[in-house]
Design brief:
Order of helices and strands: HHHEEHEEEE
Strand order of the largest sheet: 1-2-4-5-6-3
Structural class: alpha+beta
Low-confidence stretches: none
Largest sheet: 6 strands, antiparallel
Number of domains: 1
Radius of gyration: 18 Å
Length: 186
């Protein structure tokens, strides 16, 4: 068995394990997530206590690993994601990269902090087709401050070939439920 085949078999097994845990995940009120550290949110997702984001089902990708300041996703480049010129649409690359970029930041946030993407940049360096069975995208936080966070991510296959890379800048803030409310006036 080739090194690539061994890697693909391992990647398939890791995805199967996460999907098995997700079968029992019940919907939650996302507003409650602001009260726990970001990394704890992702530990609960991976344990099957919190469901995956719906976009992961729509675009056939899945969160596989999370640690402080790092998130790893895996995706299946399928024909249904093709553009008119016969390869995977750039929007698919962007969605996977955006997820890894944002989740890397989220994994580094303390309880009581949230984020939103201000901008992100994607560089596609190689065409991707459905002949590539699986790809992974790894996001890593570069800087997480009180108001601004940045991260970078790389999208690659089982042979280590790079297909795209990107960066993001995120705004860090206290969610509305954690912001001070002015006193009521009569």
């Amino acid at each position: 068995m080739s090194d690539t085949a061994v890697t693909l078999a391992r990647w398939e097994a890791e995805e199967k394990a996460v999907r098995a845990k997700q079968r029992g995940a019940a919907a939650i009120d996302v507003r409650t997530l602001a009260d726990i550290p970001g990394i704890e949110v992702f530990k609960r997702v991976l344990a099957g206590e919190i469901p995956l984001a719906p976009i992961q089902d729509t675009l056939d990708f899945i969160l596989l690993e999370a640690e402080p300041g790092r998130a790893l996703f895996q995706g299946r480049p399928a024909h249904k994601f093709y553009n008119p010129i016969g390869s995977i649409h750039g929007g698919w690359y962007a969605a996977l990269l955006d997820s890894a970029l944002g989740c890397a930041v989220h994994c580094a946030l303390p309880a009581g902090k949230a984020y939103t993407t201000l901008e992100f940049k994607v560089n596609m360096v190689r065409a991707l087709t459905d002949r590539v069975p699986l790809v992974r995208v790894e996001g890593k936080a570069v800087h997480v401050g009180g108001q601004v966070a940045t991260s970078e991510a790389r999208l690659f296959d089982a042979e280590g070939r790079l297909y795209a890379h990107g960066t993001t800048t995120c705004l860090v803030f206290a969610p509305r439920s954690h912001q001070a409310h002015p006193p009521a006036t009569a």
